[in-house]
Amino acid sequence: METGKIRLLLEAHGAQPNYNYDIIRPLIQGRVAIEGAELAWTPPGELAGLFQKPKFREGAFDLLDTNWGDLVRAIDNGWDIRMLPVFIKRKPAYNYLWVRADRGINTPKDLEGRLFTSVGYGSAISIYTRGLLQHAHGVDVSTFRWLVSAAEPFDIHDRRIALSVASGPAKPAAQRLLDGEVDASTGDITDPRLWEALEKSGSVKRMFPDYRELNRGLIRDHGLLTPAHAICISGALERKHPDLPIRVYRAFKAALRTAYDDALADQTSYSMLLDFRELVRDQAREFGDIWRHGVAANRSAIDRFLQYSHEQGITRTRLAPEQVFAKGTLDT
């Protein structure tokens, strides 16, 4: 039956399962809708193929959830993509910096000249980690050497960056640290057994044992819970329907509000955490809404990320928010 609504397909490029976020579940469940649109989504185990399918470069898609380190580079390289200020996945950057315990790395400055590994030089967590090391801890991050599992999908615009691709069987970045191939590791860790191995090993350690307090300090002092993934929209679709980006944004914002209501009402008790309702309540009292969407509400995260991306050779120039986000969402 013809409804007159725009049909939208949401795809995802990242660790599976897709769409496994509390803050968007009301939208996926259909309890929140995008005004004037019907939303469908790909299966939870299907990878969008951001770099394998020309449709993303050409703007022949609808909506995509992916790492925004890849998005700013895609935009910088002329892809027909615009971001929405909808940060559906955030991961505190200090969680993921691990170092060898047997190589004299005791302070952040000891990282200079060391060999790093990561899921990718341009991943959001890697970008934020380098930026925080440089600006908060006085580390010259241009001296880092990098061993990555695959070639970068875009050029790096800083000739000082020494990057090589590992040979041999593929393995997670943190496993290379455990195996002694590198001095330090950062970026996503999504394997529970790998987390267990890191935390039990006597050969590796966290660079910052007080990482949880450092993460909370970023939130308290700068309103910064580092975003990892964002929603983007096809540039062609934005031009055809200029008011669609703000309608999509409003739907994700409504889903977030509903997710808070679900958690604070404790109606479904879907969390595995003991005292989940009380933890969400106390977190909101201490920090406010740390999952908030919008350009103004995330100005610190956005400005830092665009600055860091340029400083680290991720983008050719220091992109402005107006170059990155859909026009209709700039005043959010």
Structural account:
By secondary structure, the chain is α/β, with parallel strands linked by helices. It has two domains: 6-91 and 226-329, D-Maltodextrin-Binding Protein, domain 2 (3-Layer(aba) Sandwich); 93-222, Periplasmic binding protein-like II (D-Maltodextrin-Binding Protein, domain 2), CATH 3.40.190.10. 35% of the residues lie in helices and 15% in strands. The protein is built from twelve helices and twelve strands. Strands 1, 2, 3, 4, 5 and 12 form a six-stranded mixed β-sheet that branches. The chain has a six-stranded mixed β-sheet with strand order 9-8-7-10-6-11. Strand 7, helix 4 (124-137) and strand 8 form a beta-alpha-beta unit. Helix 9 crosses helix 10. The model has no long low-confidence stretch (mean pLDDT 95).
CATH level-1 class of the largest domain: Alpha Beta
Structural class: alpha/beta
Q: Mind describing the biggest β-sheet?
A: 6 strands, mixed
Order of helices and strands: EHEHEHEEEEHEEHEHEHEHHHHH
| Radius of gyration, in angstroms, nearest whole number | 20 Å
What is the CATH architecture assignment of the largest domain? Answer: 3-Layer(aba) Sandwich
**Could you name the ranges where pLDDT drops below 50 across 5 or more consecutive residues?**
none
CATH superfamily of the largest domain: Periplasmic binding protein-like II
The average pLDDT value, as a whole number, equals: 95
Number of domains: 2
Our estimate of the beta-strand percent is 15-25%
N- to C-terminal distance: 35 Å
